[in-house]
Amino acid sequence: QEKKIFMVQGPYPIIRRELRARGWVERKLPSMGRQLEQHRDPLHYPWLPAEKEEEQCDEDPNGIHNLMSYLVRDRLPNFIWTNFLDATDHELLQQDNVVNHYARVDAFTTKEGLCLSLQKLPWIEQADPNTFFPRCYRLGIMDEREAFIEDFRLTAARSLLKLALEEAGDRPMRTQQVPNSAKGAGWHRSHVSHPKHSTAQPGSPLYTELVEEALEVCKQHLDILRHQDIDRNTPSPCMTCIDWDRFLQQYYRVAHEGAELVLTKQQQKQCQNLLQHLAEQLPQLDMEGRLNVWILKPGAESQGRGIICTTRLEEVLQLAWSCKAASVQVGRWVVQKYVEQLLTIFGTKFDIRQWFVVTDWKPLTVWFYQDCYLRFCSRPFSLCHLERARHLCNVSVQKWYKTSPDQDPRVPRDKIWSNKQFQEYLAQLGQADAWHQVLVPGMKAAILSALRSAQDQVRFRKGSFELYGADFLVGEDFQPWLLEINSCPTMSPSSAVTRRLCANVQRDTLCLVLDRKDNPTCSIGAFELIYKE
After folding, report:
1. pLDDT in tens, 62-73
2. What is the pLDDT of residues 214-255, one digit of tens each?
3. Is 172's pLDDT higher than 80?
4. Of 55, 329, 341, 352, which sits most exposed with the smallest number of CB within 10 A?
5. Bridge partners of 473?
6. How far apart are CA 472 and CA 393, in angstroms?
7. Which segments show compositional bias classed as Basic residues (predicted)?
8. What is the CA radius of gyration of the chain?
């Protein structure tokens, strides 16, 4: 009569316990026994003895909960908490009940969907996704694949200018052009088209003509960005006629094989001025670094499955079509610019898992959780080594790696920090204000932009809600970069920090979506309303 029948699918003992404490009765599924056995999997609760975990999952010493569950076995639940919407009986969704998922959220909870939705953001509101989302392309779409190829080439040209300036700081500059006779000892575009055709050693110098080409490419691109090319009747000859295969092979020699660059003082000034002007037009110029690293991801996978880092254009295009990892359909890959200039802690890469809840889509209503946690990699950060242990912070990836001997001992052994620990670290850096003045506002803005960009695609259902987990990287300037949004963030703790925070966010979510209906002034824990349309 009070409409307090609930159903839980998946490893959520906290939800079950909290609802029972509120006087709710569980309608159990026939497979519930098997689910309880899965709950006892030490991978889910590695710190918890089996008998304690069983008590946590099914606290029913007198059998009263099992009896009540039997009595309501034929009643439809009023509240459903499940791993995925697809796992719920469609008949149940037609009733007047509360479900912890919305339909068609893949418009922003898959890598492919988020990439497409944020491309449309400038048409929806005055916001530039390039200020918070590393540029991303769907390789299965021909136009986007061609746009990526052009982006990769332009980024290589910009990176070459950065490398030239970096090397210029290490040795004196030439005051004049290198004579043609000297160029023959290194690189000359008239007779070198690929490293294997060159007699030069990998470390031999590459001379001013390569820098000159990069300068010209970047000048033409800057003109396009400034809309100064609108009166031209033909495309820029530098953008269309350059031998890009040869240019990229020479760039690879400089960026990845140790070949030196030689440039004049005039070129040094041109590089400095041009990069300064490009920074005014390209919000991602600083974070993109100088090695042109990109990250290739299956468009609809999660937990780090199938993700590959690479620095070669040919590898990206080959992997996009031939790699069968994780049974992903060929062509459903996205490629995204890797954030090279990122903040590390004790020389180690980390990311932030940030929760938020949507309780309504019409009007859009968003609640931001004020506690979050950091996830560390198992090995020191290095762009010279692109293995997963250094670059993918997912717990599901890192649990397979032991901490390397060269890891800083101050990195937590369980590879998890709370946001409070991170704030203490920032204070030690003299950046105590960065959390509240830069990081939190940036994460809130990115989440809202992502939701608004996909709002028309989501199938709205009144009375339901959904808890999401957004993943962010932090740039050297403390700016957060949104990587992805997860529709079913894990609540299986992997550390003491996540054991506490995951339990808290589940309790506070129930306060938000259930208790607040009867008592609008009740405590909602760490949730903060950040947007109501």
Report:
1. 577 777 776 777
2. 999 999 999 999 886 555 555 555 566 789 999 999 999 999
3. no
4. 329
5. 481
6. 11
7. 186-197
8. 27
Q: What is the rounded CA–CA span in Å between residue 392 and residue 377?
A: 7
With 70 as the cut, is the pLDDT of residue 281 above it?
Answer: yes
Nearest to 316 by CA among 140, 195, 176, 488: 140
Residues 6+ apart with CB under 8 A from 522: 511, 515, 516
pLDDT at site 238: 57
Burial tier of 186 (Cβ tally within 10 Å: 0-12, 13-18, 19+): buried
Q: What is the residue type of 182?
A: A
CATH of the domain spanning 106-134+342-532: 3.30.470.20
Distance (Å, whole) CA 77 – CA 299: 34
pLDDT in tens, 399-417: 877 778 888 999 999 999 9
Using an 8 Å Cβ cutoff, are 391 and 291 in contact?
A: no
d(CA 154, CA 176): 27
pTM, rounded to two decimals: 0.84
Beta bridge partner(s), residue 305: none
What SS3 class is residue 452? helix
CA distance 163 to 261: 8
Overall residue count recorded for the chain in this entry: 533
**What does the domain layout of the chain look like in residue ranges?**
1-30+57-99, 106-134+342-532, 135-170+205-338
What 3-state DSSP class applies to 119? helix
